[in-house]
Design goal:
373 residues; alpha/beta; Rossmann fold; 2 domains; 7-stranded parallel sheet; 11 helices; 7 strands; globular; binds nicotinamide-adenine-dinucleotide
């Protein structure tokens, strides 16, 4: 089963109680299963969590969510859960306590008070043909927000040039949508040869560019930041974004149309969401977006940015600075619950699509209201 469901909106919302659970059964199916639900809830309770923490990933298979536990929830543990659930053994004595809360960019120490994850049951609705006959480049398409965006475009009829540094993730994504029009380019977006490859694979027309690939820093303030973190974070988040824009804009100018969506962050809007390197990179992405939007006004090219708040993805933030961790604790109280990658894809694809026709130079927070707190 793929990371995201091809037809998530049409999936049955309740499981057949008599059917067997497997590692591929979704969190929802586990929770709705009489024995599986009991076993699962007991595990969460022992870890000091409840099922609401899993709301954004309810349609994900258990094994995928377990993959986010950073090795704490092993294949053996899952096999044992499956065996006991299907045998109806709900005795939870001695159950391991494993934290499987999804990682978000702003994941915090367990003791920090964080609001519960967004529990709303919003579901993606596909608009058939919205991207018909359009070629859209999506970077970071192997995971999280990039993958959800690439998937949505592909399922809405677009031709996707899916880019990621991980060939394995791209293969998995492509295999999850066998009937879709997806071409993959594995490589580092900071590398000029990769950028040239991407443009070559896209071909004569590039209708859209979603610059989504990005990495977090290690939450260090400027006096503690290493050259290595500074250079890598600025290179991927800012220089890679610029290189893709520089390489694609000439084609868009020639065809007199094109939509570019860059991904900034709450950290592009405030100083309290990440360390010095990431915050700088995401503020700079906003500058780059506005400069381009101004420069190309009237040419048919639109350039906008989306600023996500907390999203449950594979991105990782290490807290390497005691000083910053303490300061971060002060700010985290105004942070709304994290959301899903699909809800970010909804914002991004709106701006990429023709419905964004009159929007140029906008920095759109897609954060449940964090930016106004
Ligand atoms: N998750 C959040 O809470 C959050 C919040 C605000 C902003 N963002 C931004 O959203 C974007 C996507 O992040 P995500 O949370 O989906 O993360 P993710 O780690 O799940 O996915 C990012 C993908 O980008 C790829 N990638 C990383 N560096 C690359 C490079 N140099 N070249 C090509 N591919 C590369 C990774 O392999 C990965 O598949 C990032 O720009 C991130 O800064 C995320």
């Amino acid at each position: 089963m793929g990371f995201f469901h091809h037809n998530a909106p049409d999936q049955p919302s309740s499981s057949d109680e008599s059917s067997d659970l497997t590692a591929d059964s979704t969190i929802r199916q586990w929770l709705e299963h009489p024995a599986g639900g009991k076993i699962f809830r007991a595990m969460l309770e022992e870890a000091g969590q409840n099922e609401k923490v899993l709301a954004p990933v309810k349609n994900w298979p258990l094994k995928r969510v377990a993959g986010m536990s950073k090795g704490k929830m092993t294949d053996e543990m899952i096999a044992d859960m499956v065996k006991r659930a299907n045998a109806g053994e709900t005795d939870t004595e001695g159950e391991g306590s494993v934290s499987i809360a999804p990682t978000t960019e702003v994941s915090v120490e367990p003791s920090t008070p964080v609001e519960e994850l967004n529990t709303s049951e919003w579901r993606e609705t596909i608009t058939p043909g919205r991207f018909g006959a359009k070629t859209i480049i999506v970077t970071g398409a192997g995971s999280g927000i990039g993958r959800a965006t690439a998937s949505r475009i592909a399922r809405e009829g677009g031709r996707v040039v899916a880019v990621d540094i991980s060939q394995e993730r791209l293969n998995e994504f492509k295999a999850s949508l066998p009937d879709a029009n997806i071409e993959t380019v594995a490589g580092d977006i900071t590398d000029s040869y990769t950028v040239a490859d991407i443009v070559a694979v896209a071909g004569d027309t590039i209708d859209g560019l979603a610059n989504i690939a990005g990495i977090m820093d290690n939450m260090t303030p400027v006096h503690e930041v290493s050259d290595e973190i500074w250079e890598r974070v600025l290179n991927v988040n800012l220089v890679g974004t610029m290189k893709l824009m520089r390489a694609t804009v000439p084609k868009m100018l020639a065809q007199k149309s094109g939509s570019i969506v860059n991904i900034t962050s709450e950290a592009g809007l405030r100083g309290s969401a990440a360390g010095a390197a990431y915050t700088t990179s995401k503020h700079a992405v906003i500058g780059l977006t506005k400069s381009a939007a101004f420069s190309y006004t009237g040419t048919g090219i639109r350039v906008n940015a989306v600023a996500p708040g907390g999203v449950a993805t594979n991105i990782e933030a290490k807290f390497d600075s005691e000083m910053f961790t303490e300061r971060f604790g002060v700010a985290v109280g105004v942070m709304p619950a994290p959301t899903t990658a699909e809800s970010l894809a909804a914002s991004i694809t709106f701006l990429l699509s023709d419905d964004g026709v009159n929007i140029n130079g906008a920095i759109v927070p897609s954060d449940g209201g964090w930016s106004v707190a």
